[in-house]
Design a protein that fits this description.
2 copies of one chain form a homodimer. The first copy, chain A, is an alpha/beta fold. Chain A starts with a strand and ends with a helix. The first copy, chain A, has 2 domains: 282 residues, TIM Barrel; 92 residues, no CATH class. An 8-stranded parallel beta sheet of chain A has the order 4-14-13-12-11-10-6-5. A 3-stranded antiparallel beta sheet of chain A has the order 1-2-3. In chain A, strands 7-8-9 form a 3-stranded antiparallel beta sheet. In chain A, a hairpin with a 2-residue loop joins strand 2 and strand 3. The first copy, chain A, is built from 18 helices and 16 strands. The relative contact order of chain A is 0.14. The first copy, chain A, is globular. In chain A, helix 10 runs parallel beside helix 11 and helix 13 runs antiparallel to helix 16. At the A-B interface, helix 3, helix 4, helix 15 and helix 16 of A face helix 3, helix 4, helix 15 and helix 16 of B.
């Protein structure tokens, strides 16, 4: 039987590793970047375009999908993969983060959360069990348990309470997960559900590969709390571990102070996922700390704002400097947008509020992230990651705010 | 030397004809539909997608392009084709219609129009000569002279005044056109300008084919006025004739009362262009009246509003009936959107304000229009247009308002 996670190479100069993560919908080469498809679509992009960018796994979200289109529609589609016509793996976030940031929260207690939808104000209830059942029902490949994600800064008592709640919920999530995947309904080959649907089947499906459940380590900026959280999660038997509660407003310096130790304490043989990160330099530096999975809205959201990620650094295509610039967005890039369109044209599209401009920059940026991850993996395999780290450190100032004061 | 327009087949049951229109950027098979790329982009679509839809010629617009990005930028790009990366023919409308509908008009007299931009209120002046020079400078294949387009209903004195002004402007436009294309600047191979630019060249360019200038026949709903306008335009030597001032609010019945005679009076050997039309049934019926060229925002604008054109008629994808419908938008359609995505998914995208939904319906609709025109041409060539006319009459009620009361 294929192991869930196999480490195929290690970098001698850092903690970085390259590996293969096997899911019901195929294998993901790690370190991997997951574009964010919150509402069942990576904004502006088609699945063909995502594949062309070398993307192997997408992230979607229980909070958004459960509100719209809802479980009934997703089940009628034969699952989320069929619904969005994406044949590769999907990781679904539990929605904890969104409940605390988007919804107006009504009640949170050890049982779960009650909140009002940001769409129509309707009252909904999420429990650890419901979150797992929903993810299983829509055919997610990697499930995340409900967690309580705190903002930075967070006082220690609040962080302690959130860790206690998150680990309690993790236990119930794991129990619920074992129940749904071992029930006749849950244990069946997930592709069996899809065979009746008119969508193409994924040939990379490995027989007998079950969905995966990750544990989420919280603990804010308190290393001992994070250690305690991890120790309570370890015996529960998760398939991988996520670092939650980063990228919530803390200074970058603090994150990279905490990350090496926090990451290295996670079980070495299991995949590690740093939630919600990040800028190109963050990705390579976190990979150097031994992180395997990333997700972030940056390439698409910043693309829609006119920002391009290139091998010359960031470019703001709205800038007047590009008014008559006939060069492609990134002369070193071979993506479809760079092969076809010029900076001056894209600037015109952005100034004219034309959707094609948002498409082109989203595509280019996801392509850039796809190439970046391929180079990180190659850097590990060839033991040359240090060169790439230096190159990115020169190109990318740590924070966007510093580049665009 | 290749003739500008060659009629290759005629329908025996109607006035429809199929032909080939040769422009500096290639040959257009007629009857042809031109998607509208007002701001130098057909909204949401890439040029690859337009080509995949079988589109051979685009329409753009002097009013919009001269305000943004402006002549300086377009010249720096090596012309509009290079700017938007479209290698095929482009017809540019003069902007008369937009001056009267979008801008706040300051002055109109026989000299030209002075107006305030709808973008920033800045005052601009258009004269027949400036409009021709602009179109020549950006490398348009088919130029349209400045005209005064009146709305429906239009009292006779106003229509008479507009005809007099439009024909006076036509004469000056033609003189200006002859000057710019016979000057050393204007006479040079338009591709010479492009050779320095980094964009691919169009191999279909025919040596010695110059840009074309069409005359615009106005006259509102008064047949004798339209006849008078035509008679004044004929001696000026235009390469083709456009029917302006239709699709400006008149009842469809009135249009198709006027169109057969109005179209048949245009010179049979020159291309005929019905400006701003229309619905699928309008296209086939106007083609049956002998019209060769069409443009309309319908496939893209209605697509962005959730409306799909199919071989089963119009579908409003926002409708709750499609909430769990796994079928493609049009089961009879082979376009990329229909091969990949379901009605239920597109409905979800529309409800979630996701741009991919607007892209998919715009693409599907332009594909439908591309297929429709190919079927009209085939209908003429095989002398089977009547069957297609009946099929569309059954599928498409005359007006959208009637389909969606």
């Amino acid at each position: 039987m294929t192991p869930v996670f196999e480490i195929t190479a290690r970098d001698s100069q850092s903690q970085a590793r390259a590996g293969k993560l096997t899911t019901p919908h195929g294998v993901v080469n790690t370190p991997a970047f997951m574009p964010v498809g919150t509402q069942g679509t990576v904004k502006t992009l088609s699945i063909e375009e995502l594949k062309a960018c070398g993307i192997e796994i997408l992230l979607s979200n229980v909070y958004h999908l459960s509100l719209r289109p809802g479980q009934k529609v997703l089940e009628a589609a034969g699952g989320l993969h069929c619904f969005m016509a994406w044949e590769g793996p999907i990781l679904t976030d539990s929605g904890g983060f969104q409940v605390f940031s988007l919804a107006s929260l009504r009640t949170i207690n050890d049982e779960g959360v009650i909140f009002s939808s940001h769409l129509d104000g309707a009252v909904h209830r999420l429990t650890p069990e419901k979150v797992i059942e929903f993810q299983r029902a829509i055919g997610s490949d990697i499930l995340m348990p409900l967690d309580e994600c705190v903002r930075y800064p967070c006082e220690r008592p609040e962080a302690e309470r959130a860790v206690a709640r998150t680990t309690g919920w993790a236990k119930r999530s794991r129990e619920s997960f074992m129940k749904v995947i071992s029930s006749p309904e849950g244990a069946r080959d997930p592709l069996r559900d899809f065979s009746a649907a008119p969508r193409p089947r994924n040939d990379e499906m490995k027989d007998g590969v079950r969905p995966l459940l990750f544990g989420i380590v919280q603990g804010a900026t308190y290393p001992d709390l994070r250690q305690e959280a991890l120790e309570r999660l370890l015996p529960m038997g998760f398939d991988g571990f996520a670092l939650g509660g980063f990228s919530v407003g803390e200074p970058r310096g603090l994150l990279f102070e905490l990350l090496p130790e926090t990451a290295s304490r996670l079980p070495a043989e299991k995949p590690r996922y740093l939630m919600g990160m990040g800028e190109p330099l963050d990705l390579v530096e976190a990979a150097a700390c031994g992180v395997d999975l990333f997700d972030c809205v940056i390439p698409t959201r910043h693309g829609r704002n006119g920002l391009a990620y290139t091998w010359e650094g960031r470019l703001n295509l709205r800038h007047a400097a590009f008014e008559t610039d006939p060069k492609p967005v990134d002369p070193a890039c071979e993506c479809w947008a760079c092969r076809t369109y010029s900076r001056m044209y894209i600037r015109h599209l952005l100034k004219s509020d034309e959707m094609l401009g948002l498409r082109l920059l989203s595509f280019h940026n996801v392509w850039f992230y796809g190439r970046l991850m391929a180079m990180i993996r190659l850097g590990v395999t060839r033991n040359q990651l240090t060169g790439l780290r230096e190159r990115l450190a020169n190109l990318y100032q740590p924070r966007l705010e510093e580049a665009f004061p």
